[in-house]
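Weekly structure sync, notes
Attendees: PL, DS, HV (note-taker this week)

Item 1: AAA ATPase domain-containing protein
DS walked through the input record. Source organism listed as Stigmatella aurantiaca. Sequence as pasted into the shared doc:
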Amino acid sequence: MFTQLRIQNFKAWRDTETIRLAPLTVFFGPNSSGKTSLLQFLLLLKQTMESPDRKQVFNLDGSHAYINFGSWSEMVFGGDVDKGLNFRFAWQVPNTLGNEGIIELTQGKSLEFSAEIGPTGHSPMRVQTFGYRGVNPAIVSPAAEPQSVIGMRYRLEKNAYEMVPSRLNQLLKGRVLSAPKRFYGFPEEAPGLVVDDLELELERQLDSTQYLGPLRDSSDRLYAWSGGAPGEVGFAGENTIAALLAAQGNLLQLPNESEPTRLEVLLANWLVRIGLLESFEVKSVGSETSLYRIMVRTPGNHRQVNLADVGFGVSQVLPVLVQLLCAEPDTSLIFEQPEIHLHPKVQSELADLFIETLRMRQKGRPRNIQCLVESHSEHFLRRLQLRIADKTLTPDQVALYFCNPGPEGSTIEELQVDKYGRIANWPENFFGDSLGDTEKQMDVMLNRMEEEESNASG
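Item 1 (cont.): predicted structure, written out as tokens:
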């Protein structure tokens, strides 16, 4: 789970300052305010990690790219190619079986990664420095400080890289360090297994980050599934039904429930609960085929119809719900406008489902799911405020931000929410000026009534 993020000189952001990332983090703001690019930055890191080209500092638009970032000049703030891009992020190391080495390495707490990427005369990008903070100091050096960093830095006067801390350079035994792998990886000459563990843990965090975009695929009449398990619904929800079929039978335990429920039953219940459907069922076309159809019953109807024959809103929200339910434990989920094409009441109910996701258990332990959301929905926000007030959600479980564009770069402000769900620093015209519109409507109405009365009497 990501816990902090700071980016400097990226797209609309000169400097985000440190952003606290909670289990449920929601970014609001007007168009072109930079809120989308905050989430896209994490995708940049992920698609670089997944790229087969280890010499690329960043994978801007090549293979395995979720987002096409164009060129360095298009990505860096203000288009200034002489600027460097600096960033850092922190995340919790999951305390699960199978990662005892990582827990020893980090003292079972968290890790922080930081990097400075700068332009050169020959290439738009070069890793100037990178490092991992939060490593067990006893591993770094017996005399190391608690916040010691293991990493690399480029020395311009030597035109070469060196290890940090400097004592690690003694273990190279005269070997020259190659350039880092991607933006985070140590070259083969780097000493010890510790560096491998650090890379693997960063890759685990990025690999467990999943993204669903704002424009999801429309429903098909038939779906082919050969038994594979995609693990996520895909960039546009293209793997939604395959992910659902692969996860059928998985058990999830709701808060305040003593027994777990099958995942597909939960999904059907959710669709009924938010008022979009009365029933939802995945049916095989035949025993000798790998084709499936989704049959649903809408409110007020008594017969099932194909999902392709119902409103567009169902096809847009279905990938969101499947992503929430099918995600593996310790996954960070990124959503752009999950409320798109939904009725205001459904938008409010959707917020409850996000909260419910945070509180679910799987196999007797918390799922530890994180949701990073970009939203334009006042109804989504209002429901979160209500759930803080009624103690369903605690303020530390949620972080709400408002992004604003500006000539010197976008700015971001965390909304200060108290235990009653009240926002102390509500931004001006957050969701438009509804009160002002109401006052203007009253003025127009009174003037019009006076005019009509005058015309009638004249």
